[in-house]
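Protein in question filed below.

…
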Amino acid sequence: MSTCKYHPLKSSRFFCSHCNIYTCDECCDENPSGTGDEHGHRCFLCNKTMKHLGAAHSVAPFWRELPSIYRYGFSKDALMAIFGTSLLSQLFIHFPLLLLVPTMLLTRYAFSCLQKTAGGKMHPPELGEGFSGSVKLLLQLIGVNILAVALIIVVAMFVHPTAAIVVALLEVIALPAVFILLAIDEDLKEAVNFGRISQLVASTGISYIVLLTFIAIMISSIGILNALVGDAFPHIQFFIQNTISSYYFVIIFHMLGYLVFQNQEALGFYASDSTQQDTIRSEQKIQEARIEVLVKEGEYESALEVYRQLLPKSLSPVLWERCLTLMLAVGSQTEITRFSDNYLPKLMSRNEEFAVSKMFRSIIEKVPNYGPEDPELRISLAHTLYNAGDFKSTAKLLNNFHKRYEEATYVIEAYTLLANAIEKIPTMASKAESYRKFCNKLIKENQEKEQLQQESVMFEGFLKSSESQSE
């Protein structure tokens, strides 16, 4: 099981032969042409079509999924099949021939479990589906048992009893493979073909041996559980024994199907993985994933280009923050300044004063003299920093404000705020009074200027009135 290059804890589902990388479904473009074809996934790096690996690369070995495998038998349909056939067995306990009915029903259901699991469906079949199907499969199963017993008898009679024991052991080892081939191909000839059996065992390798071990443990545990129940109540013991045996029977066939599903590539067929939920992502989510891949590959300029295309259409504050974070790491001072002028007002509009203060300090680490060119924006930013308790940043932002902007109202507001800020900085508190005096001077000058303007307007009005009277 290969893993995604960019998410090592995730199994891979796609492979790019051009870039020689494996990815999960998040790290590629699943719908570049808008067709919805899952096999049209393209690589974020080279934009070439990727190979779909199938579920073999995303499914974990069955021994890692034991909790879910054992829960399989407790789902509604499986429990109904298990208890139903056990109850029928209890009813037919005195009619040996009729006991074949629940046995055949459960066998048919178990084979349906194997087939569905092998096809990537990790939930039991419904009762109607599980019990349906031709009788052919059951007849072939009977044929397998007859052939197995006949082979042991022939070897015992014409070779040696010890050789018959060896054959019996080999048959026990091969029996799960025979069941798998019978369920998949539904062909008795193929199921007992020694070449096919050997190929299946060799393809599954250690997984097949581990599976045999678990089967042996489950079968041996039935006897232990029966001993715990005791024989004081034979009818109850028979029902419990049938129920436990039926549960293990279903679980064993589910494990056989999972073995096929796990090793499908080696066995030469493809099955979808129902444990992997394919979801259609929005264009923004796809581009965010592209950015993540480009950043991890060190393609920073390409990542920033994707941001430039994406941000005008996005209102996501997280996306803007990520872009600025990347820009602070690799961008130029000019680009950082231009972007910050657009981003900070958005951040300030959310009234997140401490976030603004944190981001501003990050900006001035890369651009020491940063400050918005717009005076209103600069003052608004200074107010936000002041409210966040960041008095040093407030003072830095408003220092020499009058040299940049001549509008008296802006200068008065800026230096009033500056005086309040430096008053709270012990090393600069003594300068606060000088800024206040400067502000008072500007206020007085501004008032005198406004008064002169009013008088001028009044005088002009008087002259116009006099001219109209003289006419």
